[in-house]
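Tokens as discussed.
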């Protein structure tokens, strides 16, 4: 996997993925940014959420669970001193469907957390990662 990051101006950087997609990241005004895009650490957190959500949806579909929606709300804390790594990350999954079995959702989340989501497993080296979920009827 390859990526390219190009400095645009001040604290703005354009990330380009190997798959041909681009993402503008920017810093806060106090760091010379203009708030044109997410911060790099926000991007890391969103990417981790997408990684685990992808796993959970994929596992639930393979288990033939009738899901219609999946949202992951993420709450994270960072260290107060540099390098300000994530120290705590909580993932709250909201899964919707008609007759989705909670035990299947719990299983999918555990599989993602322990085996498949390389991003959250990597961040788990510095952060305490927790999960919970709710299942709502569509």
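Sequence:
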């Amino acid at each position: 996997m390859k990526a390219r990051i190009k400095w645009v101006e001040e604290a703005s950087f354009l990330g380009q993925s190997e798959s041909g997609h681009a993402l503008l990241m920017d810093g806060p005004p106090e760091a010379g940014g203009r708030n044109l895009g997410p911060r790099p650490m926000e991007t890391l957190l969103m990417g981790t959420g997408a990684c685990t959500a992808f796993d959970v949806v994929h596992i639930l579909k393979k288990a033939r669970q009738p899901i219609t929606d999946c949202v992951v709300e993420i709450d994270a804390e960072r260290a107060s001193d540099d390098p300000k790594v994530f120290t705590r990350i909580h993932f709250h999954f909201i899964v919707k469907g008609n007759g989705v079995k909670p035990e299947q959702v719990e299983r999918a989340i555990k599989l993602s957390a322990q085996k498949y989501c390389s991003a959250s497993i990597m961040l788990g080296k510095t952060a305490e990662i927790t999960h919970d979920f709710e299942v709502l009827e569509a």
